[in-house]
User: Fold this.
Amino acid sequence: MSMPTNALPIAADTLAGVTVVVTRPRHQAARLCHLIEARGGRAVLFPVLEIIDVEDSGPARALIQRLDEFDLAIFVSANAVHKAAPMIAARAGFPARLRVAAIGRRTAEVLQAHGLRADIQPQEGFTSEALLALPEMQNVQGKNIVIFRGTGGRALLGETLTQRGAHVSYAEVYRRVRPVCEGAELVRVLEDNKKVVMVVTSNEGLQNLFEMAGVQGQPLLRHTRLVVMSARNAECARSLGFGKAVVAEQADDEGLIDGVITAAQHN
Assistant:
């Protein structure tokens, strides 16, 4: 069916009058901010996580030198790809037999940008649970699997694969830290705008946001509409005293923008 000539693929004023606080790391926020502004909203960047190098990359480099011993390499985020790719290139790339899994679409796109291919990835969900549910991840008895991740990452993926009989190693290639930032900036945004929606995509980010807001900002946060990436995030938000959170139906920028529109309509 053809689209009527007066129909627009994007409603340019959908978020008119809405301020959206984007808490992603600075280097990952540009596209979401663009989508917000394309719909008439005001995007305010307030990073609650910063991605930095690990203090000692030696253990990860040593694992990368042994990639011939592994059957599967899993990348849990785009950050894992960005940080690992130069080290992998330094050893002349991936062994031909090594299969590669990406936790989601964005991670797969970044792998491709670095000349690597994701053989396995969820078509929706984009979480550890979604990856673990794939047929390729069931019969892993005796397989050697390396997971590229940040330090102290979520344990579910590795623990489940170990329970299924795989031998799991972790290549920790980045760290997440809380940025040094004055919470007064966030308080001003929350106080000066009638319609505010906040986007937070991880439990660690929620914790950092709450601490960065300080005593003055925390009551304001609890009354601000929140858009999160998963049910786990929503549960974490509730534990911190936030009101109802909108969970994005897709764990990507498009899903988040849809969640923002839904939250704004009920703000």
